[in-house]
Amino acid sequence: MAALRALEEAAAAQWRTAGGHALEARLSPLADESRASFVLLQTAALLDARAALAKASLQSINSAPAPPPPPRPRRAPHRDDDDESDGSALQGALVRRNVRRGKPELELCAGAHAAPDGSLRLLLPAVMGAEECEQLVAGGLVAMAGAFARCGQTTLGLSPALAHRMRPAAPPPHASPPHASPPHASPPHASPPHASPPHASPPHAYPLHASPLHASPPHASPPAASSPPAAAEPTLPLLYRTVERARRAVAAAFGEAAPTLRTSDATLTRLQPPAAAGAAAAVLDVGALRADRFVYSRPHLDQVSVAEYEYSALLYLVGHEGGGERGSFGGGRLLFHDEDADRVVLPRPGLLVAFRSGAPNLHSVEEVTHGSRFALTMWFTTLPQSADEAAAVDPVHAAMQRWAVEEAEALAHGRPPPPPPPPPPPLGCAGALPTREESILSAALCSLPANDRLCQALLRARASGAPLCDSLASGVGLPVEQAHCAPSCTDAEVEAALDSLRDEDFHPLLRGRVKTLRALTTTLHRAIAQRGGALDVGNGLGSAPVERVRGSDCKGTSDDFSLFDAAPCVRNDVDATDATRGSREDELDVLHKVERPTTEDPFAVFD
Ligand SMILES: O=C(O)CCC(=O)C(=O)O
Ligand SMILES: [Fe+2]
C-alpha cells in the first residue's frame, strides 16, 4: 500500500491548502472524514486526468498534427459577468466619497450598532456552535472539490447541484452505516432552541465518507466504526438549518414577520489569497485564467447587484487570526466604509452579521492574506416571489427549505422535529464517484452564476451533447488535458501505484478508473513501440530509443511524441478496445473517435 501513499498525500496536501488546515489545527475528528472524502474524489480526478492525457496521446498518434491549443480568452469586458454593480451611480458616488486611505478604523463588538442612516447593524455571536461550524467547513471542503474559483473566491450556491456535491459517493462496503439516531452535533453550550434535533436520518443521506483510498485499510477496525458521533450528522440539512436560523434571527432583529421574510439567495463561500488558487489549492480558478476584473475585495452595495435583496447576512465559520484561534486566516476582515471611519468586523466562528443591503452599507472584504475564510452569505427579502420564479424552484431545494422551517417551528414549540427529506437522486451513475463530465457540470451549476459566460457555454455544450471538458478548456484558454485541478503527482508515483498494485487493492469506487487507465497506458505503450519500430525502418535511425510515455504530470506536456514528429508519416492506427473493458462507456467516447483499424483484431498490427 506504500505506493498509494504518495497519491493520498498529494490529494491530502490539496485538502489542507483548500482549508483543511483549519480543521486539522483544531484536531477536529471531522477532519479525517473530510480529508478521506476529498482524497477519494481528487484521486478519481487524478486518474481521470491521466486517462484524458493518455487518450489525447493516442489521438495524436492516430491523427497526425494535434489541434492547436485554443486561443487564450480575451480580457474580460469592462462589466464583469457576475457584477452589475459597476454601473451604479449611487455606489460609484459612495465609493468616491468613502473609500480612501488613512481613515480611522473602529472595531465593532458583538451587539447592535447603528448604520449612518440609523438602521441596525447586528453582530450576533454563537448563532452556530463551534462543532457545527466545523462540520460545515468539513462538508464544504468536500463539496468544493473540483468546483471553480474566481480570483480566489469559491462560491457554492445552495442548490440541488450543491446537494449532489454533498453526497459524492456511496459508502464503501466496509463502512458502517451512520447511526440511526445521531447524537447532537451541537456543542453543549449552543443555546437550546438552536440545538440539533435528535432525528433519525436516512442511512447514508448526505454523508461525508470515512473512505480510505485503498480497499483494505491497514487498521483492524473500519474507520467509520471508530468515527465520533458528530461525523454521522448529515451536512446538507445542517446547511439549510443554518440559513433558517439566520433568517429567523434577521426577522426578529429587524422587526419583520418571519413568514414574510424570504431567503433570496444563500451561498457557502471560501475566500483565499488569490495566488493560492490553482492546482495546489485544488481549485481551477477560472477568474484568474480569464483575467476577470471582479474581485471579492471590491467595495460594494449588495442591493446594487440584486435589487430584491433587502437584508444581507454573513455567518462566519472560521475565525480571523485576531481571535487567537488555531487554523485561522489572516486578512479577510469585513469593512463598512462609512464617511467618517471604516467600521471593522473580525470574523469568528458562529458569528452572524446582518445589515440592510442598500445604500448606507457600503462594504468590502479585505483580501485574505493566508489561510481559508469560510462563510455562509445570505440575502433575505420581503418581496414576494414571482409565479415564474416559484414554479422554477427545484423540488429538492424547496423540500429542504420547508423542512428547515418545520424543524425550527417544532423546536420552538417543543414538538419532535421532523427528519430531513431524503437525499436527491444522484446526478449520474448511482453509487459512483462523479465522472469528469458530471463534475464539470455540477461545478458549473453550483459554483458559477447563471450569467457567467463559462457557465452558459457549458450548459450549451451539454444541450448539444458536446464534451464539457472541451468547453471548459476553451473557456479558460487551456489545452483540454490541463483544464482540471487534480493533485500533482509525479509520473513515477502514479506508475508505481499502477505497477505494484492489483485492481482489488484500490478503493472499490476507483477500480473502474484504474482498469481504464491501465488499459490506456498499455495501448499507448504498444502504439509508441510500434511507431518506434516503424521509425527504425523509415528513417534509418537504427536503434532510436522508444520514448516511454511520460504520462501526465497533470500540468500537461508539450508533446509526448515529439520524437516521432519529424518522421515520415507512417500511420499506425491504434484502437484502445482494451481500455474500454470494465469501464463506463460514457467515459470513453473520445476513444471511439480515434480512427479504427481495418482489421478485425485491433491489436493484430502489434502481434
Ligand atoms: O463575507 C463577507 O464578510 C462579506 C461578503 C459580501 O460582502 C458579499 O458576498 O456580498
Ligand atoms: Fe456584500
From TrEMBL:
<protein>
    <recommendedName>
        <fullName>Fe2OG dioxygenase domain-containing protein</fullName>
    </recommendedName>
</protein>
<keyword id="KW-0223">Dioxygenase</keyword>
<dbReference type="GO" id="GO:0005506">
    <property type="term" value="F:iron ion binding"/>
</dbReference>
<feature type="region of interest" description="Disordered">
    <location>
        <begin position="165"/>
        <end position="232"/>
    </location>
</feature>
<dbReference type="InterPro" id="IPR005123">
    <property type="entry name" value="Oxoglu/Fe-dep_dioxygenase_dom"/>
</dbReference>
<dbReference type="GO" id="GO:0031418">
    <property type="term" value="F:L-ascorbic acid binding"/>
</dbReference>
<keyword id="KW-0560">Oxidoreductase</keyword>
<dbReference type="InterPro" id="IPR044862">
    <property type="entry name" value="Pro_4_hyd_alph_FE2OG_OXY"/>
</dbReference>
<dbReference type="GO" id="GO:0051213">
    <property type="term" value="F:dioxygenase activity"/>
</dbReference>
<keyword id="KW-0408">Iron</keyword>
<dbReference type="Pfam" id="PF13640">
    <property type="entry name" value="2OG-FeII_Oxy_3"/>
</dbReference>
<feature type="compositionally biased region" description="Low complexity">
    <location>
        <begin position="206"/>
        <end position="232"/>
    </location>
</feature>
<feature type="region of interest" description="Disordered">
    <location>
        <begin position="409"/>
        <end position="431"/>
    </location>
</feature>
<keyword id="KW-0479">Metal-binding</keyword>
<feature type="domain" description="Fe2OG dioxygenase">
    <location>
        <begin position="263"/>
        <end position="382"/>
    </location>
</feature>
<dbReference type="InterPro" id="IPR039210">
    <property type="entry name" value="OGFOD3"/>
</dbReference>
<feature type="compositionally biased region" description="Pro residues">
    <location>
        <begin position="169"/>
        <end position="205"/>
    </location>
</feature>
<feature type="compositionally biased region" description="Pro residues">
    <location>
        <begin position="415"/>
        <end position="427"/>
    </location>
</feature>
<dbReference type="GO" id="GO:0016705">
    <property type="term" value="F:oxidoreductase activity, acting on paired donors, with incorporation or reduction of molecular oxygen"/>
</dbReference>
<dbReference type="InterPro" id="IPR006620">
    <property type="entry name" value="Pro_4_hyd_alph"/>
</dbReference>
<feature type="region of interest" description="Disordered">
    <location>
        <begin position="59"/>
        <end position="92"/>
    </location>
</feature>
<dbReference type="GO" id="GO:0016020">
    <property type="term" value="C:membrane"/>
</dbReference>
